[in-house]
Specification:
With about 140 residues, the chain is mostly helical. It has six helices and no strands. Helix content is about 55%, strand content about 0%.
């Protein structure tokens, strides 16, 4: 693989997510890109991407970190991405006071009759995510 190959769409999305989360004004973003020798994040190669991400982290961006156990790939069960989304939505709804999964598990048992995220199937995960997004919408 060549060092000057363009970055992936996923990496471009990560840059845009960081800029949005940090609420960096467009003019500041454009100036930062110019300092890295590009006019658009799509022009970055791997080295430029890593340098720009390091800058974003210096100004406050914190990439998402895994917040709970990974139960591995299990046929028919919720993926790690779905579980992390459920945890993140729950954390957002509880205003970041969520310390353990006990509170979440109690809600899951009461609402969906499942005692833990460990036992959530893919279809049930979709329902839980939809419910949490609806709760977030109502709270807004």
């Amino acid at each position: 693989m060549e060092a000057n190959m363009a970055i992936s769409p996923r990496q471009i999305s990560l840059i845009k997510l960081a800029v949005r989360q940090l609420k960096i004004p467009d003019d500041v973003y454009r100036t930062a890109l110019a300092q890295f020798g590009v006019t658009s994040c799509t022009e970055f190669d791997a080295e430029g991407f890593n340098a720009f991400m390091a800058w974003l982290e210096r100004v406050g961006f914190r990439p998402m970190e895994k917040k709970g156990p990974d139960y591995g790939e299990r046929p028919g069960m919720a993926s790690l991405a779905q579980l992390e989304l459920i945890r993140n939505l729950w954390n957002e709804l509880t205003h970041h006071h969520y310390q353990t999964e006990d509170q979440l598990n109690a809600w899951l048992l009461r609402t969906f009759k499942v005692s833990s995220l460990r036992f959530v199937t893919k279809p049930l995960a979709q329902k839980i995510i939809t419910a949490l997004k609806a709760m977030r919408q109502r709270a807004a």
